[in-house]
Design goal:
Shape: elongated
Helix content: over 70%
Number of domains: 1
Order of helices and strands: HHHHHH
Number of helices: 6
Distance between the termini: 9 Å
Largest sheet: none
Strand content: under 5%
């Protein structure tokens, strides 16, 4: 069960790295604007905010990556702690998005699905 949880945690981390790329590096590009449903003017006006927000996503992914590394080094307690902290924060962020902007339910489910599966399976595997 733990191995499957770690696969889902890794997928969550990869997704959040991709979100970081979109928010921090390509925010004003036509493709990213289409993904987030923003106009060119909105993207320019929110560029600094998105840049900062993107790094939050990156740091959550890094926490999971370090946790996966700890598991690989047989440091299961440290690994569990970091994976749960990173994935749990991703789940919490998805819930905040869902509750504050119900029109963005698809995005919330997309960003929260992998980490919620990771958290549940890791908890079962404890």
């Amino acid at each position: 069960m733990t191995a499957v949880a770690l696969v889902f945690a890794g997928l969550a981390a990869l997704l959040h790295v991709y979100i970081w790329v979109m928010e921090s590096l390509t925010w004003t590009s036509p493709r990213t604007r289409a993904t987030f449903g923003t106009s060119e003017a909105e993207a320019e006006a929110t560029k600094e905010l998105a840049f900062n927000q993107g790094f939050y996503n990156l740091f959550l992914a890094v926490a999971i990556a370090v946790g996966l590394g700890a598991f690989a080094a047989d440091e299961d307690t440290v690994g569990t702690t970091l994976v749960l902290a990173g994935a749990g924060s991703m789940v919490a962020a998805a819930l905040v998005l869902l509750l504050s902007s119900p029109d963005k339910a698809r995005a919330a489910i997309t960003q929260g699905a992998f980490p919620v599966v990771a958290v549940v399976l890791l908890a079962i595997g404890l």
